[in-house]
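Just curious. Protein, please.
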Amino acid sequence: MSVVAPRIEATAGEYRRAITAGTIGNVLEWYDFGVYGYLVPTLSQLFFPNGDPTVSLLSTFAVFGVGFVMRPVGSVVFGIYGDRHGRRRALSAVIFIMAISTFLMGLLPTYGQAGLLGPMLLVVVRLFQGLSAGGEWGGSTSYIVEFAPHGRRGFFGSWQLVGVGGGFLLGSLTAALLNNALDGAQKLAWGWRLPFLLGIAVGIVGAYMRWRIDDTPKYTALEDQGEIASAPLVEALRDYPRETALGFGVTLHNTVGYYIALVYMNNYMISVGKLLQGTALWISTSCLAVFVVLLPFMGAWSDRVGRRPLLLGSCIGFIILGYPFFLLAASGNAALSALALLLMIVLYAPFAGAAPAFYAEIFPTRVRYTALSVGYNLAVAIFGGFAPFIATWLVSQTGSPYAPAAYVIAAALITGIILLRTRETAFSPLP
């Protein structure tokens, strides 16, 4: 009697559905998470009123960072669940949690309405957002790359970042439109709530889409063969400690570059460069659009030349131009500020486009969700989520508007050194 071999390659239709579900789900997930960052100037007045605007910004960015503290927890909870029960179920759960917590943020009382209860509830909601985000990145990366045909993993994986960048773009665009449509009093009274309340609608759509997709052929093959990991976290840390540490180290530049360029610089142009909030938001929105467009090309490029050249090139670019980025952005000139952010985006895009495939390629399928998520989210929690807070603190403590450059350059330097000692992964089969 013949035995039918498990199917490990997807059909063309499944390729399209995988990219669509992974990308759109990420857009919806990261819109919810990112809109907080773009409304920091408004939220700081509502939840942390203080005579010193720097203190208000620091407090609001600290709460932004608090959400990242839960990301390692989310990576463990949803990573284990996703490796044991499938990517589809885990990804459906994380987007639902993000949508509910974001919707609740839109209902919170402010400091003026409830005193300290307002900021305390804001912290609680951010913790749930962080829990969800911790399960999203590794899960969606695993899902999309596991569907990819050999030789196109970079292109497929880049769509994970297209979704992330698209979510932040949608958040930035929403904040910009809100700023144009309402005056300052209206934004502070009720307008700030609208972007968060939209979270429930996008979450329902995203959860529905993800629940209807199939699990990846590689995961299904493991399931059919009875080779699902019973304790993926233990196995990942026991059998793949070097790879997990590598994921952590490579993420330093990835996360610092991302949250400085895509979140902090908007507020930097306002607080240091003294640009109008509306001007800064439109600069951020335009540069984010460029970033999203570049990503698939960078992913495809990494399929041709390998992951390391793009990853290393981005690190070198940030080391060389880290100081000029902030010199231009602090000028107070809108054109020079836009040039600074555009340069950051163009130099970061090669890393972002190649990174998802690289992360997925260093771990085997049976523990990929957990191992990828843990290493990545630990680095994000420590260095990325608090990057806007650290940058703001550096400016306030040193008195130099260019001080954040040291943080950006240090992260790029450390990751670059690690990559010099790392093998190429693009041309080997997915383990």
Remarks:
- Residues 42 and 72 are 28 Å apart (CA to CA).
- The radius of gyration is 21 Å.
